[in-house]
Write a structure and sequence with these properties.
Length: 380
Amino acid sequence: MNKLPPLPLADINSLDSREIWAALTEAHRHLAELKGLCESLPNQGILLDTLSIQEAKDSSEIENIITTHDELYAVQGESASRAAKEVRHYVAALRTGYEAVRASGLIQLDTVLAVQSELEQNRAGLRRLPGTVLKNEATGAVIYEPPQDAAEVESLMSNLIDFIHADDGLDPLIRMAITHHQFESIHPFYDGNGRTGRILNLLMLQRNGLLDLPVLYLSRYITTTKRDYYRLLQTVRDENLWVDWCLYFLRGVAVTSRSAIAVVKIFRDLMLKTKHDLRERLPKLYSQDLLNNLFRYPYTKIEFIENELGVSRPTAGKYLEQLTSAGLVRKQRMGKTNFYINQKLFDLLSNVTLEEVFVKESGFTERLSPGAVSRSASQS
């Protein structure tokens, strides 16, 4: 096994190429447009709540934790499936990291540990026992063996945190691409490495001021180009080909930014249309708080209305029945709970697959056959 070297890269100048600079320019341009669009929204927090559920679902699918949008409605109930609970934990972990970075302006090791702990609902911390390897699920062949020694894992993570905060003039998107690869190669946890690594991407964008909200979600890009993702991760380990990896990553940022811009525009217009319909059909019921409630998630329920609008339970129930009668939400019973679904928002989040756009724009066409790469312990 080749020893994983610490950062920075010894041959960082190899990334100083025309192709890299062109990809950087495009990625930064679309990121800036997305940031400006988000800043124009009156309530950015609602967008974060809504889109984080979609990102959680996509990120979990990379790990073969598949959940349908319908299951997400029950995510806070006792009837929630394991997959839906995984999504809930991802949303909470993303929020944990976001709040920590917003408060301190730093991404500390404690931040990464807190994110992973929230994801996995345990405090196992960094790996201390040997035996973790990456395997080809189909053949059982070992593809990659991450550092096994606990002291080495801890040292490499300390080095990674230093690299994240280094003031060395490196472009922040290149830093993010290198950080993501290094984190996944360290594989510091028993579980949750993939999802923690993808949240770390968002926190780096936030910390560097490229986005005020963590709304650039690369998970769908990775899902769509999964074969390339794993192939290029390994190619760097085997052949030190950082240019191809960085180009893949930068294309992902550009394509994902473009798709996010489209989604945010539709979200904004849909919210304005619903505001108009609510005022027209139920003028006595309308309030900005009620509108926000309808868009915070693709569904609401009596408890949400009761808590966010400060009304009694019977009043909250009456509000939701009026919204249902006016055609603004659809009532659906799951288990013992009635959910009131914002169908248009649900359709938006359900139908934004954009696989053709991702593949066409990124230049990658291969797909990962089910189970091409896994870990000996569990997928994460």
